[in-house]
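Hello Y.,

Per our agreement to keep a running log of every chain we model this quarter, I'm adding this entry. I've kept the format consistent with earlier entries: sequence first, then predicted structure.
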Amino acid sequence: MAEQTELRQKHGILHHIGIRGKLLAFLAIAVVFIVALELVAQNATYKAAAEYEQDLAHYHLVHKLRVALESFRQNSDRFIKDPNSIPIENLYDAIAMLNSLASSIAPMEELSVEAGFEVRAIGYGFDAYLPVLSRSLSARASGSSGYYADFARADRIAGYIDTYLSRLLGVLLRDGELRFKIIASRMQNINKIILFGISIAGLLSLVYVFLISNSITKPIRKLAAASEKLARGELEIDPLPRKSRDEVGVLAESFFIMSQNIRLSIENLQEKAELEKKLHEEKLTLLSIGKALREAQFMNLQDQMRPHFLFNALNSIARTALLEKAKATEKLAISLSKLLRATIKEGGPYIPLSEEVDIVQEYLAFQKARFGDRFEWHIIFDPDLNACRI
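Predicted structure for the entry above:
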């Protein structure tokens, strides 16, 4: 428990990015990168399309002006030949339209030097053409003479304008073709850049996926090896390095803490088993001692039974001698029984001096009966010492 607490204090409770967060972050970055490439490609496409549409619009506008001029020339010629063939108001509307179209191509002057020259020439031509033709049409409509000279002059100017418009169309086609090549080359370069970016993104994605998979599989392999080691009974497991705070890192740390707890539990069980073994051995020793004690008590009881048996036998002899009136035999039996009683008396190794004197007197009396007149004795001691224990 102390090691587990130390590990928890060491690592602490930290916020971490899990595997799911890493994958979502990678997916978000990939999506943002792909969207950015798509936006770049679309922006380049839109710009190229806009430029192409602008060139096409310029060409169509010039072509429309040329077609309108040709149609106006034919209608004007018909009106000059026969004023009743076309209403003059239609011709005036056509003149206004031509003037408007001529004004709309004026911004093309900024496209190039050649285009600017042709646009200015066309503008000067219309500035000269429309007033002369209008005067000729008005004179023809009013029936005045001299209208044809103005018409012929205006028609020559219209021929010049048509030439300028044709040349402007050629310049626009040439510039448009050149610009289209530039746009195509630019789009090709952009596509190469996008392809290169996608390749780099793919390579980085592979590297990131490899790092992510390695950060997941490598600790798991180490964890599997540690699990096999633990399954073999090897409890000394080194802590697995925790380089990340994701689920795998938490799993590795938890496994190490679990292995430490298992090791501590097994050590505690071993200590408990050793203690129980010692207690069992002590219990067996106590049982053996108790058995020996009971045997000693039994033997002591047997030792006590023999003097008691002799003492009872002597008492029986003394009563028999009394009945037979053998006083000497009775006296000896009583003396011997007193000696035996003194030997089996319990109370410790110390007795009063008075009891010891009585025992000595019985013993000496017994010896007197044995040796007769050859043995004389007399005991002298201070009666005040009767209570003294010896």
